[in-house]
Amino acid sequence: MKRRRIVRIQIFLLVVVTGLLIVRVIQGPPTPDGLIVFADLETGKLSHEAFTLDAPAPFLVEAAGSFETSAPASPLAAYGWILRRDTRELAWRMDPARLEHDNGTLVHVRDSLMLPAGVYDVFFTTYGPSPESRRGASFLGLKHHWTNDEDDWMMTLTPAEAGTEARTITGEKVEDLAPGGPDLVWTTAPAGRRNHTASFLFQATDTLMLNLYAIGEFCGEDRHPCDYGRLEDAASGERLWEMTWRNTKAAGGWSANRRFRGDVALRPGVYRASFETDGRHHYDHWRANPPYDPAAWGLTLHTDNPAAVSAFDPWRMREPLILLTEVPNDALRTAQFVVTRPIRLIVYALGEISDSGSPYDYAWVEDNASGRRIWEMTRDASQYAGSGERSNRVEIAFLKLDPGTYTLAYQTDGSHAFGDWRNGEPPHSERWGVTLFPFSPRIDTTAFRLLEPAETAEAPSTPPLGAGELLFKKTRLGNDVHLRFPFELDQPTRLHIYALGEISASGSYDYGWIERADTGETVWKMTLPDTEHAGGDDRNRRFDGVITLPPGSYVLFFKTDFSHAYGDFDGGAPDTPEDWGITVERLDD
Questions:
Q1: Does residue 102 sit within a domain?
Q2: Nearest 5 degrees, angle CA 390-CA 184-CA 350?
Q3: Domain assignment of residue 309, yes or no
Q4: 442-449: long-range contacts (C-beta < 8 A, 24 or more apart)?
Q5: Residue 41 domain boundaries
Q6: Does the chain have fewer CB atoms within 10 Å around its N or its C terminus?
Q7: What percent of the chain has pLDDT above 90?
Q8: Total of domains in the chain
Q9: Does residue 345 sit in the same domain as residue 437?
Q10: pTM of the model
Q11: Residue (of 88, 68, 127, 80) closest to 108 by Cα position
């Protein structure tokens, strides 16, 4: 009886122990202690914590990470590091030469370090050394891969002495991690938007030294820049500095991550700094291990003379020469002016350009003598206006004009313009249009003269659209459109035809024509010799002319193929993309 009771107790204890073991396996190892603790890490993540240290103090750090493979020259795939925020320099990292190997790719380190007072950012990355690194993990871990180590990854940072005045930082925003300080001029960091160019137009009123700190990406075997910064003289367009493979160094993480830190001497003048990102590897969208200073992804400017630097705003610093603003839908505004000797001017344009680069509301400057557009508002040169849709764009351009007569113009389409903000109203919406400013605060009034309407050139021989009775209009035509419009003429009639399409030396792709209804004879057709370049891609062609047809029955046709049409101008949009298609007006009653 006594023995049976002992057996029951033993069975009960065995069940309890087994249950505790199962719970322990399910819960995993206990969370380690420390000021900063990274545990339960997952593949494809960047972990971050920050702390502030009031006085110099010693610390103990323990971490477990992974090499990509067990080969001797294999790069680290999962690892941690500590960055000092004020200097943006490494305070500690997992050094491959000092790691203790465990089974396969897993490695450990126990280290001690002395940290000065300051703010520190602690990181642990598990993206892998390249975009391909995480591929190849076998099903259920039957074949070892570095990602199989994730249950063992960890990192702790612990003060080595009691009473160390160190505190973790909580509630910070992303921009709080970026470079700053009292001598900060401008920063794009952390640059996280895809296919975006951020630019800063500024004026230096004194000679100064500008410190540039940039982290970006160089792609492919040719190491071309994908995320990179540049600095140029705004007036002349001279490139003073830009990120290149040769003037940058490895930034940590993926080999594509590059870093520049250096000075550029500036004289008094107006300058433009910019940083461009593509659609792949960038802050908060890493394809592989990020750089050691991920929050500095972008371009940051500091100077030892911040009082001599200010943002350049022509609206605040100059008086307009020409104002074509508050432009509504379906409008064309123009102004002509004469330049009597070489002059520098500033063009400020606020309009609508799509992500694909198609301009809807935009400006240009034209040389009247040649008809050539010497400047045109584009997606690449403009930037996001600050609110509403991303198509709200603003561009500030600097022009150097020789003596001659010029036209400043602004065109809007049928929606989203001043007074009709269907896609969100931009800041300073009253500037919707184009404005011309002098570059110099003191302009020589004899060098620039605005022409009065009576002085402008005579109207062209081809009447403008709207002068006749509208017979047919189909514009903004996309891909794979086939139009057919029969019509009758009871007397000889002049027709004004305005058409935009795609024609090249190899053939016609988007174009119109007119046939006799009874015989099928073609009486008019858009061809390469009879059309002119319509701006943008060389294939964009425009017909703007008058034909005369005898009485009879006719059929108007217009067709587009499978590519390069309104909303999908893959090779560059024409000057007026909204006219893609055909308009016919009857000039005779």
A1: yes
A2: 25
A3: no
A4: 443/321, 443/343, 444/341, 444/343, 446/340, 447/339, 447/340, 447/341, 447/343, 448/321, 448/337, 448/338, 448/339, 448/340, 448/343, 448/345, 449/337, 449/338, 449/340
A5: 36-169
A6: N
A7: 67
A8: 5
A9: yes
A10: 0.71
A11: 80
